[in-house]
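Recall from the previous lesson that a structure prediction takes nothing but the amino acid sequence as input. Here we apply that procedure to Zinc-dependent peptidase from Inhella proteolytica. The sequence below is the only information supplied.
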Amino acid sequence: MALVFVLLLGLALIAWWLAEPWLRSLRRARLRNQPFPAAWRRILRRRVPQVATLPPDLQLRLKGLIQVFLAEKPIIGCGGLTVTDEMRVTIAAQACLPLLGATRGYYPALRQVLLYPGAFVVNRPVNAPGGVVQDQRRALAGESWVQGQVLLSWEDVRAGAADPRDGQNVVIHEFAHQLDQVKGHANGAPPLATAQAQAVWSRVMQNEFDALQTRVAWGEPGLLGSYAATDPAEFFAVLSELFFERPYELRAQHAALYAELANFYRLNPAAW
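The prediction returns the following tokens.
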């Protein structure tokens, strides 16, 4: 009798495992098709003006993405912050912009977003003279962890959303890291569909990254800025900010980079 019970339990678990992706897809479709709350529309108009610049079909798709994102990804207040719908919708709208074109899930490795009132302090190991490793305290506006967390400063989230053309958006930046980290680490090379596409991406990105580092050494970083020269992962994240917020300049000054990002995100924001 016990053996039969164990077998039935095993079969039930296998059935659930096989059915779970289908059930998740149905649940997400139901969420996307629900009416978008009027209060959330008002938040978008007030806090995320970029949404109004999207083509109508992408505005509609974005609202569906927001509804799924907020149903699945808890946003937790830290440092005494009480999270409101205004905060949740403002974050979700920006986090879902990179999902508008390509179907790549809803940041499958992300478990939660931790939201602080302002810049938060972290300790980072640095190499001191003499080979000694010391902790250095740094104040950050955002950070993305491979372990499934994104940390954000509400002050910076709000500022990034308020000006959709300044090329600085901490939410897009950190969620670009999430797309990069889906393979377990960030190196500026998010997974692409084919080996050929990956090879072209690597060649274009490396050439542009090397050129940027040369310009930074001469004190002339240009549109991309010196922070993008930190490493390839930051290069990709900064490019993603520019792609969504300053696409015309990025296409004009770095056409090959723009083409790679347009292929990755399956979007053409310079045409909006």
